[in-house]
# Entry
Amino acid sequence: MSRLVLRFENSKLKEVPLGTRPVTIGRAPDNDIQIDNLAVSNYHARVYVEAGSLVVEDLNSLNGSFLNDMRVERAMLKDGDSILIGKHEILVDQTHDAAAPSEEWRKAPAPRVNETMILDTHERRKLLEMTVAAGERSQSSPERSRVPTLTVLRGRTDQKEYRIAGKLTVIGNSKMATVRLRGWFAPEVAAQINKHEDGFYLGRGDRVPKINGTSIHGLTKLNDGDVIEVGRVRLNFMYRE
Amino acid sequence: MCLSLDEVQVCGAKGQSLWEAETPAASRMRPLLHIQAGARTDLGRVRKNNEDCYAIEAALQLYVLSDGMGGEAHGEVASNLAVQTILTHCRQAENSRATPIFGEVSTDVSERTNRLSSAVHLANRKVFETAASNPEQKGMGATIVAAWIDAQRLSIAHVGDSRAYLLRAGSMEQLTADHSLVAEKVRVGILTPQEADASEMQSVLTRAVGTNSAVEIDTDEQALVVGDYILLCSDGLTRMVTDPEIASTLLTSRSPQEAADRLVDLANDNGGVDNVTVIVLRVDEKSESVFERLKIWKKHST
# Structure
């Protein structure tokens, strides 16, 4: 994947990966690249992908945007290009993704629609590299090194605290439940927690659980500190060291 | 091609042999949930061969579906062999705990799920070795999606782009992530879901059973609740019918078999571009006497 590198007086300030969403540049804090300088307009410019190419567009800024020293309103970008906004430089870096594989992939001849095929080894390795790179970039959450736990705040359960391990955690009266609910009327599966690649998700069972007081609609991701309510039981979901 | 869904496996549309289920081991715990199953496989409107294959072993609550690939009807060989290998291995493991486990064992899932994954690893090995020893079968492979139910736990193992869905309380969720080129690109961020749906490369897989000596299998577990529907299907269904149409068909059919028939008809009405196979499962309550319920409660509360 391509990226934009923000530089000022020869120091690298920030790096922003270019996905399918456009990248906005300006002085206002809600820009993807924020440049806090009076020469920069609140919403100065943006960079986006159009038909496989990178494009920079000036958003009617006061002082203009410059591509390789030429003032532009709209221009196509290539690897190594430099966009000047105020005194800040934004470099286009496409070296890491082996000459924009997104374009390579698109240009690859399409196999006949009706045939099911398997990727050959070389193609599979390229895809794996990109997947790993994308995964590394998104792996910034510190939660990965911490242990997810459920602490009982209220209600009748067999333990006071539970460690969540495994892909499936059941809250209920069932023999396979991690959080065993006591009581004649407790359902076998009141609710369940599924482990996905990007975190833990709470789903309904026989009951619709609540997160922080609100009933869930379908699988809902759990955040550190969330309070889960199932029937009379209240649990605190936390990541511990 | 006749079938009695309690016992028998159905493969292809050309009158292949039928397998019969063996009786389960007596030591297995009596299931608390009753699973009602319906299934159908169909050539579709365009293809000359049906390379899909499915099997239901009701006594084990094991359900397997496979979509074969490889020219000249070798896909049929691959999918048949994969399904048969999985059934045999799972039956064997139920009868003997000493049955070896193939592939990596994960501590994230139960023994049952690891066993299902082991069956798919073995299927991969068998198909790969068969292809290696017959030059005209080179490159043949298959997708797999398998579901195995143990009391309230649903174990899923899959490779490829055949899918498993769970429909609960009117809301449907895809349990499996497609191992296809376009789906991987969407996950990495190169394609949007809309671009993926329009892509001409939708049938290119990143993983399959039998095309390599080793394979990475995805597993999942869910807790089941009375009223749940589970759907296993080949891409012949999901290419032709939208998820909301699938969900509403499941919810408005009187039985899983009726749902399966209607889903296949829908796929054919919309073009029937590929073979289509579906297995529909519905989780029903087992009716027991109050006395039996007391016995179970007493056993569980000790």
Remarks:
- Residues 52 and 234 of chain B are 8 Å apart (CA to CA).
